[in-house]
Amino acid sequence: KYRNTTPSNNINADIAYTKQQDSLYHLFVDIPKNYHRFFTKWTYGNYTDTNATITAIIPPSKKQKFQYECVLMCDTCLTPIKLVLEKEIENPATIIAANNNTVDINQLPIGKISNSILSSAGFDTSNIYFDFDKSKIKDEFIAVLNKNIEFLSKYNLSIKILGFADMYGIRLYNLILSQNRANIVNKYMVQHGFPKKKIIIVKGMGTTHYCKSIDDCPDGMHSKNRKATFEVYKTK
């Protein structure tokens, strides 16, 4: 159906990219003007994109492999040409120390920081769990909050606080309960020195679905939904 080709023997093309900011890149392929693209596909990780160009975030401490595939036609082509390019791009903000796997938070790119990086840097990524139908912070999680307040205060980091509830009860009630859980964590952190302006959002997410329905969900799974969680972001 198509005549396969590579850039080296037929078309002088390559995946090019420009850095927009930190881990954000704009990727494109410079196709000679006498060729016409009529099908384009990018593949990266588990994702595909069918635009001629893409904007991608390359995670810190990782390399991202991009594959570009398109079908070309030109005025003198007897059959369509299938062009396949592949390129691996590394985020230059990689700061993982090979000797001890510690991370320099100050050198990370702007954006959400993964839990694995946060853990290696000293942030406690544990969820804050609550008793059934309660939004009071349990004593066992005070130390987690205090540790994280101290950690966050060292860096230019912002957070999202998200609250959740189990599947017992009606949806609206659980939405309010989850909001109350997020609010109480927010209140504690602000009262104990974390700047309010560094909190991006405090939001109740309602129920989370570890189970398909309430009937087939053991209480041990329900208890995992009675929580508040953090998302941590590097800001300017």
Itemize the secondary structure elements and their pairings.
Elements: E1 3-5, E2 15-21, E3 24-29, E4 35-44, E5 47-49, E6 54-57, E7 63-74, E8 81-90, E9 111-112, H1 115-121, E10 128-129, H2 142-154, E11 157-165, H3 171-191, E12 199-207, H4 219-223, E13 227-234
Would you give an account of this structure?
With 236 residues, the chain is α+β, with helices and mostly antiparallel strands. Helix content is 19%, strand content 36%. The chain has helices at residues 115-121, 142-154, 171-191, 219-223; strands at residues 3-5, 15-21, 24-29, 35-44, 47-49, 54-57, 63-74, 81-90, 111-112, 128-129, 157-165, 199-207, 227-234. The strands form three sheets. Strands 1-8-7-4-5 form a five-stranded mixed beta sheet, with no helix packed on it. Strand 4 (35-44) and strand 5 (47-49) form a beta hairpin. The chain starts with a strand and ends with a strand.
Defining key terms:
236 residues; alpha+beta; five-stranded mixed beta sheet; 19% helix; 36% strand; elongated
List unreliable stretches of 5+ residues: 94-101
Query: Structural class from helices and strands?
Result: alpha+beta
Strand residue content: 35-45%
> Per the principal axes of the C-alpha atoms, what is the gross shape?
elongated
* N- and C-termini, Cα separation: 51 Å
The amount of helix comes to 10-25%
Q: Strand tally, please? A: 13
How would a crystallographer describe the biggest sheet? 5 strands, mixed
H and E order: EEEEEEEEEHEHEHEHE
